[in-house]
Design brief:
alpha/beta, Rossmann fold, N-(1-d-carboxylethyl)-l-norvaline Dehydrogenase, domain 2, 2 domains, 8 strands, 53% helix
């Protein structure tokens, strides 16, 4: 496998576990990378100690990776800007950063979710706030990847989706290395939806595990969750094949079964009877599925798409429906054909 990487100047916006892991991977690949983080103490730690003990403990970062809490400094003059902030704060960050993004830059996004207030995906938020030329080069990055494993250099595969093949190939080239293989794709909507919906299904899978329902139930839930993801995707013009790939089935399986999954952990503790507020109070990192449960549920309702697992997960999270009752209601639904 041969890889030719032209050295890129890249801004990575978001100093959480995923943003830091991706920025470090890009630095290891020889690129000039500036990571933007909100917290001043985190910026100082990354620049002085080359670690991120809050979000990625135990990982030594590349000494050439720099960090800034100035969006202007991070984004100015960069040929590629990678967004990795939580989706619910993405709009505010983009509004501040937009004047400083080069007109010929590639905009990539590795965050997963749907904005709650508007029910928009990140590509749609970018379409509102950025010039048309930048939006043409928008790339959605997704796949079955835990930040810690990528940071450890364990084998991982992701997909870079764009309507502009040149843009997706640039992102592919920037990230590709012997431990990270990147595929290109043209289905931006499908890749974005896969990343948002799988977090909700992962909470549901965690709830099933927390209730002690066993492997049969989890496998069935993953499969039916994929069907729901596909239904929503079809309603929004996505391609069915995308949901059988890395950004769909791949990411869904990982997030529903892996112990490193924050969303599955939230569900597991809910299934064991812990309250949502107490669960979230224990977590430093964001579990996007909690907010995405509401935005995906509302989006499905607006498009008249039936998503019963998403609906019950939303009710458990936001209507205080008992988890065991929600599962009983799912099982008691009218009998029908699988297709």
């Amino acid at each position: 496998m041969t890889m030719k990487n032209n050295r890129e100047r890249i801004a990575v916006i978001g100093g959480g576990s995923w943003g830091t892991a991706l920025a470090n991977r890009l630095a290891l690949n020889g690129h000039d990378v500036c990571l933007w983080a909100y917290e001043a103490d985190l910026v100082r730690e990354i620049n002085e100690s080359h670690t991120n003990s809050a979000f990625l403990p135990g990982i030594d970062l590349h000494p050439a990776l720099t960090c800034s809490n100035s969006l202007q400094e991070a984004a100015s003059g960069r040929g590629m800007v990678l967004l990795v902030t939580p989706v619910q704060v993405m709009r505010g960050v983009l509004q501040q950063m937009a004047p400083h993004i080069a007109a010929d830059a590639v905009i990539a996004n590795a965050s997963k979710g749907i904005e709650l207030e508007t029910l928009r995906t990140v590509s749609q938020i970018c379409a509102e706030l950025l010039p048309a030329g930048l939006n043409q080069r928008f790339v959605a990055l997704s796949g079955p990847t835990f930040a810690r494993e990528v940071a450890q250099g364990l084998l991982s595969l992701i997909v870079a989706a764009s309507r502009d093949e040149t843009a997706s190939r640039r992102v592919q080239a920037a990230f590709s290395c012997p431990c990270l293989r990147v595929y290109t794709n043209s289905d931006v909507v499908g890749v974005e939806l896969g990343g948002a919906v799988k977090n909700v299904i992962a909470i549901a899978a965690g709830i099933c595990d927390g209730l002690g329902f066993g492997h049969n139930a989890r496998a069935a839930l993953i499969t039916r969750g994929l069907a729901e993801m596909n239904r929503l995707g079809q309603a929004m013009g996505a391609e069915a094949a995308t949901f059988a790939g890395l950004a769909g089935m791949g990411d869904l399986v990982l997030t529903c079964t892996g112990d490193l999954s924050r969303n599955r952990t939230v569900g597991f503790k809910l299934g064991q009877g812990m309250g949502l507020a107490d669960i979230l109070a224990e977590m430093r990192m964001v579990a996007e599925g909690v907010k995405s449960a509401e935005s995906v549920y509302q989006l499905a309702r607006s498009l008249r798409v039936e998503m019963p697992i998403v609906e019950k997960t939303y009710q458990i999270l936001h209507d205080n429906k008992p988890a065991r009752q929600a599962v009983t209601e799912l099982m008691a639904r009218e009998l029908k054909s699988e297709q």
